[in-house]
Design a protein that fits this description.
mainly alpha
């Protein structure tokens, strides 16, 4: 039996939050359009970009950087804004926010 560390559990939770944030962005064409415009990605390569190691960190950083978007995602996902901020900190440990 393999025991997971608390850090591993936090990372998995943060990644799940980021995946939910991606789903939130993709669900609304206007949100998705803004994200791809600011990220330099396009819809055609979004799926392949999602395989990159830093992609989920970028998603959660993008959501956390926009208070309105953060609050909308929190409400839509049933998460507290503090949970999203904690996920951001786990996935972006060198970030100041």
């Amino acid at each position: 039996m393999t025991l997971k560390s608390p850090a591993h559990d936090r990372r998995e939770g943060a990644e799940a939050t980021a995946v939910a944030a991606l789903g939130f962005l993709v669900a609304e064409p206007e949100r998705l359009s803004r994200f791809v415009a600011l990220s330099g990605l396009d819809v055609a390569n979004l799926r392949s970009a999602a395989q990159d190691e830093g992609f989920l960190a970028g998603i959660i950083a993008y959501v956390a950087a926009d208070e309105t978007l953060l609050l909308e995602f929190a409400a839509a996902s049933g998460r507290k804004p503090q949970e999203i901020a904690a996920a951001h900190q786990v996935l972006n440990p060198d970030s100041e926010g």
